[in-house]
Fold this sequence. Notes:
Layout: H1 14-18, E1 26-33, E2 42-47, E3 52-56, E4 72-78, E5 86-95, H2 100-111, H3 116-119
Parallel strand pairs: 3-5
Antiparallel strand pairs: 1-2, 1-4, 2-3, 4-5
Amino acid sequence: MAEQPQGSYPRINGKMLQSGVYNDQLVSLMGRFVSMPNPDATVSFQCADQVVVTLSTEHAEVPPLDMIDGPVVEIVGQVATGQDPLMMFVVRELSKDLDLDVYNQMIEVQQNPKFQNYFAPIQA
């Protein structure tokens, strides 16, 4: 695995998260919380591509009740290995009306090798 550039993290969707390509990296996910926090410090999150993933709330504040099926949020966290949940560090509330389909299309273009040079972090 290539070293992750300092201060940069990829924007991904649920399918990309589950692929294993981003293990041990910081990433950004956008979507909505779809369940109450569980006793095991996890919460279900529906990503922009409609894939539901499990997030760990161990290192972040538990999302407030009004965020369940509420506004679109950005999650920044570290992808674990295997079936472990993404470790959520930052939750940014964005909007209730953000079009996640359009956002997901943008993510797929960004991750397409054909367009990779347009979205790659600037190397110092």
